[in-house]
Amino acid sequence: MNPPLLQFNDKGIYCQQADVYLDPWRPVKNAIITHGHSDHSRWGHQNYITHYTNVPIIKHRLGDINVTGKDWNETFTINGVKFSFHPAGHIIGSAQIRVEYKGEIWVFTGDYKTEDDGISVPYEVVKCHSFITECTFGLPAFKWEPQADVMTDINNWWAENRAEGKTSVLFGYSLGKAQRLLKNLDPNIGRIYTHGAIENMTEVVRPLIDLPATIRVTPETKKEDLLGSIVIAPPSAHGSTWIRRMTPFVTGSASGWMAFRGARRRRAVDRGFVLSDHCDWTGLLESIQATGAEKVICTHGYSDIFSKYLRELGYDARTAHTQYEGETNDSEEN
Question: What are the UniProt keywords, alphabetically (predicted)?
Fold first, then answer.
């Protein structure tokens, strides 16, 4: 009996026929990468293949690597296996990987979301027989509000803080979330400042998307300059000596976890905004149904609960262990 086209082992998701891994978490010879977050694009592989818009991102993060960029829907063949990248809508440059061999089609999503965020190429349904899906927010409790509504709340919060003479400090991951926030902030309210980690990544992606002007916070930045402004910072900056120069400030966090009751208190922020770069429960179910897949493999997140529900719907569903983190409480990457 032939092995599955894609298998999970201790290094990652392996295609034996092509001798290539998808988003491997241990060093391998050949790696096909879905996107630039550090749990999916790791250092140490000999050869990287990714979507061309992801090339500058992973080079910025991983340094001098041997990487090849491909376009959307561009087919490349390795030992008879056809591969292609398709938009995942997760962050800038994020892709699903379609794998075809002898008429059998698999799709590995990496991370994905179905709402058009205005900075990522929108998610594309790819028909397949087997679908590997994340389940970061695979519970019915997770149901996202439209991005426009969330950003209206964020801009109103900033305007209120400005009227009170306070600096607004909003936490978001340095790649993806931060640029999504920047794209949708209202610069008419005031100046937009960024933490160095945010600004460094934003400089990398500016040639790819149109973003408002930002000002890097430096040791020379004065507290008086920041009053009434908004500062976008990674979660790791919360509670650090860096943030003390913002006084008086109000903190906010943009994350899917803000949908959980008590999340704002646990993160010790003044305001929580539910904004995720992953699918909610409905988005996951609708995406799976649209692929036409009969076999579904559920990875990181609420995978056991989600796969059980899929089996109740009639899918051939199971879980698989990976070292992907999804949107975690302490990572700056998702």
Answer: Exonuclease, Hydrolase, Ligase, Nuclease
